[in-house]
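G., before I forget:
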Amino acid sequence: MNRQELIDLIKRKKSFLCVGLDSDINKIPAHLLDREDPIFEFNRAIIDATLPFTVAYKPNLAFYESCGIKGMLSLKKTMDYLSNLKKECFTIADAKRGDIGNTSEQYAKAFLSAEGDFDFDAMTIAPYMGEDSVKPFTIYKDKWVILLALTSNKGANDFQFMEDINGKPLFEKVINKSQEWATKDNLMFVCGATQANMFSKIRELAPDSFLLVPGIGAQGGSLEEVSKYGMTKDCGLLVNSSRAIIFANSSTDFANFAQQEAQKVQEEMGKYLELYMK
Amino acid sequence: MNRQELIDLIKRKKSFLCVGLDSDINKIPAHLLDREDPIFEFNRAIIDATLPFTVAYKPNLAFYESCGIKGMLSLKKTMDYLSNLKKECFTIADAKRGDIGNTSEQYAKAFLSAEGDFDFDAMTIAPYMGEDSVKPFTIYKDKWVILLALTSNKGANDFQFMEDINGKPLFEKVINKSQEWATKDNLMFVCGATQANMFSKIRELAPDSFLLVPGIGAQGGSLEEVSKYGMTKDCGLLVNSSRAIIFANSSTDFANFAQQEAQKVQEEMGKYLELYMK
């Protein structure tokens, strides 16, 4: 999906919600566990219920890999299901990969190539290894790199705020430098909602880039602050919520609860789109 | 495998060679391609041929993920095969993962848990997200985190050498800080052989830690320099070679060629162990 299609989707659904499919086998409703593929059944129900309010889905690969081959099969089925909804949602492999050039090429093939088992629109990448570790993810048409910049977790403080002699922190260097490797049409940044006070600064560095924002919901970030300081005339935001939506309830009626939570977030987002998208 | 067992293995085999199983489906010998699982057949032949000269095997996950579910099945079969050789080799998932705490727990379960499909001794981790992204990999007994510090690729220059106001580069901060989270008994560092001039410095920061050293062979680093400046009284090195060994030849006799290359490296290593292990 290209940038304009993504913007159109956001405008049409009046939403910039990304639902994180962190479908932990130990947290999904118990009644699904006797199905042949509980994780896929869970994902399909969540997707069906939340699709009207959601512009992106983001399976975090850790929750699939932790179930081994079986988990990867659940991911494949989920991706096949999402592929049939191509115009209705943007898909993100939350994989946080990155390796030397020839190896990153393989990861890109794994998750961004139409020939592979997992034809995502975008994938998250860690910046530590620099240019040749990132560039291979930029070569697929209408596919996106989403580079970690300022993450939502406590450990973000360990290295991301490290300042150089000019007082410029590492995450700023990542945002600056990476824009030499890709453009706003194929590069987004991960910026945690728990860092909302940094969003004005981030917008100085990347005025037109899309930001993928984890950290609202269970992690406690503020959707209003993110919208106020992070939104652009094209929206420029995909705000993720995982646990607060997908695990809203664990009864047989879980999908309805997830839908209600997604709708609640979408309605708030609709308000902020009117207020701040300019 | 714990630290002492690893050291004993190195002494017994007079080798600190790690063979990188970067088993690219496009590079393995053509005659294997009509087998049911060409990648596994290739790996098994390489392992059988190189085991006497090798202390560790390191599949890079990118080469398996790029083949989708089929590739992950090849990886599982390879790990099952390696599991039967437990006392004979250390196993590393070159995965370069890392995420927020609850998610890193899932990656750790995927690759370090005896209950999972992939029961590796160690896995490589990217440090960008800090403490809570790394710690979940340290909780499994006799399992190891191998943290990226100074990588062998050109892109290493983009961020890893960024200096703080005291002139201390990022990779040094990573080495220092992470030793608050784990010990020499469960934490190693990735330090590229192409950075051999930095090994004295690295030994000041991590005098007793094992280093996983990629970059000899195809990437051009010097085994002698790495040994001279990086070796400790316990060896403290695992030096990886991938392409130069596994793709030494693509005829039906490929395994013999791989064996010869591995033996050549082992013989050189034996010499350096006598010279520098003190």
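The longest strand of chain A covers residues 90-97. The mean pLDDT of chain A is 96.

More on Monday.
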